[in-house]
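User: Some background: our group keeps a shared notebook of sequences we're curious about, and every so often someone picks one and asks for a predicted structure to add to the entry. Today it's my turn. The entry only has the sequence so far, pasted here. Could you supply the structure so I can complete it?
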Amino acid sequence: MRQPMVRFKQILKAGLGALCCSLALNGFAQTTRIDSNYVNPHYELRMKEFSAQPIPKNAVVFLGNSITARGKWAELLPGVPVANRGIGGDITHGVLARLDDILATKPRKIFLLIGINDLSRRIPEAIILQNYERLVRRVKQQSPKTKLYVQSVLPLLDDMLKPDYLKNLNPAVTSLNTQLQAFAKKHKLTYINLHPIFADASGQLKKEYSLDGIHVTDAAYPVWVQYLKEKKYL
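Assistant: Of course. Here's the predicted structure to add to the notebook entry:
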């Protein structure tokens, strides 16, 4: 097991590297500062928890932010080796920084859902997609037998949202999902559109599944898992 200081330095180095790459994209650094920091006390706490809860052999890994973290995936998939690798508030840069530990276990499947926090920070779509590119490249290089599923970013319910920075993001969500679908096709990955079960007719998160406008209720997760089973992804 790596020492905490070594792990912290690795995370910090990865974060700074991602920031430099992001800022260099198309000369974007010339005009805009991008908040790509992901290291915070909660992130570090979750990393310690992950160290104490190794990913089982041949696992199905759910990877993402708080929407993933809140899911009781192991309970919903009895008999399946499952690992929850969600961290509240995480962004694509943070997922990249902790990807090596996941890929070292050679998981059978990874269900990825990440991007809403990037959008809330106004990280450009091009940089989010660049990070997806880096992620896919590393999966193929380090664990080529792992099947990666790209899940659509969930919509928001504006009427329930309290933070102003989260409001009116649904057009950006739609745009990113369109790009993610094309991205998945390009890389011959499975794209999972979750909007048929979680979006209403106006494209907002369904009220019956919405906890606070961004997170989904406990009742949403069994529906989510059933949908994945019906589509034969699980």
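Suggested note for the entry: Residues 17 and 26 are 16 Å apart (CA to CA). Confidence is low (pLDDT under 50) at residues 1-6, 8-30.
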